Amino acid sequence: MEYTPLSFMVNQHLTFRLETSDAATVFVKVSRLTDEIARVFFVSESGEPVPKPPDADLYDQCTERKVELHNGEWLITWAANYELVWGSFVRLRFTNPRQLFVYQS
Fold first, then answer.
1. What is the pTM of this model?
2. Residue 72 has pLDDT above 90, yes or no
3. Where are the domains of the chain?
4. How many other CB atoms are there within 10 angstroms of residue 6's CB atom?
């Protein structure tokens, strides 16, 4: 897994391009709401929100629990680490989101 150091203190919004097993392209957007909270959601190529794929889930690595969706998006805090699991693969990993190292496979 490669990592990309990014900072939400500088970037209000970040979009990640992911390839699916059927060669489709989807995008995951992370958008800062406050200095403490960001939202993670799927968007189309044009940037419009789209429903979460049924086999994609976000997990809090500290509690090993699924993060619940709120209005089609996940809310993350800077205090926890997260993994976006799609099918049986970790597709994105948010480690210490305040400093935000994003691992993308």
1. 0.78
2. yes
3. 2-104
4. 17
